[in-house]
């Protein structure tokens, strides 16, 4: 049976509080609809999105050990809705837990730096879990399906997992890192039809955007075209950085590949919350660059 109250230390990350505010809004709406309690970690810092370690691995580990320690203070798992945050913080957590056995002096060094800043020490007692996997493993697909009031029948959804969610950590206990099914199973639970295409587990191109823009947009365009060719009505991603490259920059992508695309790209909680009867406006579906109106029209909204 479902636990009466699921509670998490909520790490929203930077992008959901800025360029993808609709992800923040829809996560709040979804968890409220499901009765999940989120305690936002207001003092948390940016995970660095993998860039801190380019200067210093110790910097990346210490910053994210502090983020994890904030969740440990609450005796709760850390929940994020960003694949990049999951990959970075989850990887740090995984490594530091291993260091507790193999290299305790490194943990002492990290905690020494935290102590200097008046922060709680890293203990290695919290789990780092993406919203997708919290819903799949803690809440359960059957329970979500039972709460559907607006079945997404006929909506063809192409998952875009991205790379950080699947392969940034050494161990992926919730899904196959090369042949995942978590999002597709979620689509089925809310009545939608999953579309399988080659690029769903590949990089969106975001990391290249600052120094190889054309190549970045060509990658994004390739994935979108593949999904469209197989009849997708929309793409759905668990990563706001992927969303930026696939949705916000889709008009620029079109110019680079010289093709019209027009594929709506939804955040995962937006899709699920739609099936639970939450209004599109409350989910920020009017904030996207590529209009989500074709999705809403297909659902009779």
Automatic annotation (TrEMBL):
Keyword Nucleus: no
Keyword annotations: Oxidoreductase
Protein name as catalogued: CoB--CoM heterodisulfide reductase iron-sulfur subunit B family protein
Gene Ontology MF terms in the entry: oxidoreductase activity
Organism superkingdom: Bacteria
Family matches, as Gene3D superfamilies: 1.20.1050.140, 3.40.50.11810
UniProt-listed PANTHER family: COB--COM HETERODISULFIDE REDUCTASE SUBUNIT B 1
Species: Chrysosporum bergii ANA360D
InterPro entries membership: Cys_rich_dom, HdrB/HdrD_reductase
Residues covered by the Cysteine-rich domain: 8-89, 158-247
């Amino acid at each position: 049976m479902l636990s009466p109250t699921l509670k998490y230390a909520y790490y929203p990350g930077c992008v959901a509080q800025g360029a993808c505010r609709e992800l923040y809004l829809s996560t709040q709406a979804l968890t409220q609809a499901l009765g999940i309690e989120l305690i936002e970690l207001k003092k948390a810092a940016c995970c660095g999105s993998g860039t801190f370690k380019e200067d210093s691995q110790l910097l990346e580990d210490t910053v994210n050990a502090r983020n994890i320690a904030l969740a440990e203070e609450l005796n709760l798992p850390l929940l994020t809705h960003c694949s990049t945050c999951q990959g970075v913080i989850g990887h740090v957590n995984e490594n530091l837990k291993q260091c507790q056995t193999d290299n305790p002096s490194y943990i002492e060094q990290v905690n020494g730096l935290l102590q200097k800043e008046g922060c709680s020490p890293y203990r290695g007692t919290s789990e780092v879990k993406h919203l997708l996997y919290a819903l799949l493993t803690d809440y359960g697909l059957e329970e979500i399906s039972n709460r559907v009031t607006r079945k997404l029948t006929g909506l063809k959804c192409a998952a875009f997992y991205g790379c950080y969610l699947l392969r940034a950590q050494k161990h992926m206990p919730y899904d196959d890192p090369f042949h995942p099914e978590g999002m597709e199973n979620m689509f089925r639970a809310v009545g939608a039809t999953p579309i399988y295409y080659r690029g769903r587990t590949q990089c969106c191109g975001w990391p290249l955007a600052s120094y190889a823009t054309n190549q970045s947009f060509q990658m994004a365009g390739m994935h979108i075209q593949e999904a469209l060719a197989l009849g997708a009505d929309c793409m759905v991603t668990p990563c706001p950085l992927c969303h930026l490259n696939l949705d916000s920059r889709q008009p620029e992508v079109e110019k680079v590949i010289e093709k019209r695309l027009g594929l709506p790209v939804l955040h995962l909680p937006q899709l699920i919350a739609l099936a639970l009867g939450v209004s599109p406006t409350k989910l920020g579906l009017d904030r996207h660059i590529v209009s989500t109106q074709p999705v809403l029209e297909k659902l009779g909204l």
